[in-house]
Amino acid sequence: MTETPHAAEQREATDGPSDPAYLEAVTELLGGLAYGQLRAFSQLARDSELAPTLRHRSELARLAAHELGRYTALAERLRSLGVEPEDAMQPFVAAVDGFHERTTASTWLESLVKAYVGEGIAQDFYREVAAYVDADTRELVHRVLEDNGQADFVVGVVREAIEADPRIAGRLALWGRRLVGEAITQAQRVGVERDALAGLLVGTPGRAGADLAELGRMFVRLTDEHTRRMERLGLAS
Amino acid sequence: MTETPHAAEQREATDGPSDPAYLEAVTELLGGLAYGQLRAFSQLARDSELAPTLRHRSELARLAAHELGRYTALAERLRSLGVEPEDAMQPFVAAVDGFHERTTASTWLESLVKAYVGEGIAQDFYREVAAYVDADTRELVHRVLEDNGQADFVVGVVREAIEADPRIAGRLALWGRRLVGEAITQAQRVGVERDALAGLLVGTPGRAGADLAELGRMFVRLTDEHTRRMERLGLAS
Fold first, then answer.
1. Cβ-count burial of B149 within 10 angstroms (0-12 exposed, 13-18 middle, 19+ buried)?
2. What are A207-211's contacts with CB under 8 Å, separation 24+?
């Protein structure tokens, strides 16, 4: 996602991670994101075995390794906050695994669309939440999730496949919608179960979050970015 | 493996990769090694899902990513020689996949012993063959395979498990022997099928390889290193 400037982004968190409630929220943010990346590593590594050629396989494998690099940076930050990454990740295992189990790619192209669209929307979401934390944590999240075009090869492969057989576009578009639906389901689950993380977004007593209008704009931004990614792939969203 | 100085190591290859027969041999060496690393990445990533904790899982995942980094360096060298990595790897897919299919770990500890002992002996073997190629290629192989203790966490985990339940040592020792047996089977298959690579070791008209005594010493070195790795794990070889 290109940086979208909005009001919340400018707001600095007033407490550092020394406030236990705030530390819990940051731990949840980094823990959820860390497990998401560790699980994405496994998923992409597994999906790379669906690749039709060794070149494609190594490209998806490289994307997997990139996700693991992100995990490593997040785990280091958690440790520097005095939190075991393992403990921080545990609460998110069920939701993240649930997403992946309910969206198991059955073809190579489905796995690519998932790598691009599924990871894309999840990462946008974490970047949005990062607008509500202290500058250090925000900078870490943005740096870790920086898009250096690691997944760009996906665009070429999917577009070529559609060019060769335009009928697959409809099925892949449906798949893209299913990915977003499942992502929203699991995000809601996390929102209900993880008070501290949800509190970052909607606010807690003594700490302002986003108002309803801002949450609405955030949803629009996430949807817009998703649509753009689908378009890049040559798919209707 | 610590560097073992031996006569062949000092010998410089007389032809550069401009000689087509020699280029073929180097291509086979790098291609076999590259596919070995790419496949090891997949295997370790898969096996990391057997881990009992997220910490162990991330450690094995990191080892997987390390193997992929090695693959990347080898693929780059192949490209710089004008060879598509994909083409260079293809001839080794059956043997390497065969090894992994016949040694599928059924427990987390088996996967660790395999990561340490199986990869260890394969890498020692490639380092040995590298003694018979030009200095540039040899330097690349040694650099790529450099042991920076990436797999050292395996030693601690396996030894702890044996301490907790000494009965598993016998089963794991058997597993170690099976790994070596399968590795030798597949290495023989490669030796029969890949003339150019085999020619590096045993020599070709106009290019000296190892004599029988040297091959014998090489076999002893490989066995010694294997025994040392098993001992480090607390296992009889």
1. exposed
2. A207/A13, A207/A14, A207/A15, A207/A22, A208/A11, A209/A132, A210/A8, A210/A132
Whether A69 sits inside 8 A of B65 (CB atoms) is yes
Instruction: Verify whether the Cβ–Cβ distance B72 to A49 is below 8 Å.
Output: no
In angstroms, rounded to a whole number, what is the distance separating the alpha carbons of residues B105 and B203?
A: 36
The model's pTM is 0.85
B112 in the Ramachandran plot: left (φ > 0), alpha (ψ -120 to 50) or beta? alpha
Beta strands in chain A (DSSP E): none
ipTM of this predicted complex? 0.80
What six digits make up the tokens of B96? 């390497």
* Six-digit token string for B178: 């099976």
Q: How far apart are CA B181 and CA B187, in angstroms?
A: 10
Q: Do residues A107 and A172 touch, judged by C-beta distance below 8 A?
A: no
A75 in reach of chain B (CB within 8 A): yes
DSSP of A66-90, one letter per residue? HHHHHHHHHHHHHHHTT--HHHHHG
- Residue tagged 């899902």 (tokens): B49
Question: For residue B204, what are the β-bridge partners?
Answer: B207
B150 touches chain A (CB under 8 A): no
Listed range (A3-7, A24-28, A100-104, B193-197) with the worst mean pLDDT? A3-7
Q: For residue A22, what are the CA distances in angstroms to A14, A19, A198, A202?
A: 10, 5, 12, 14
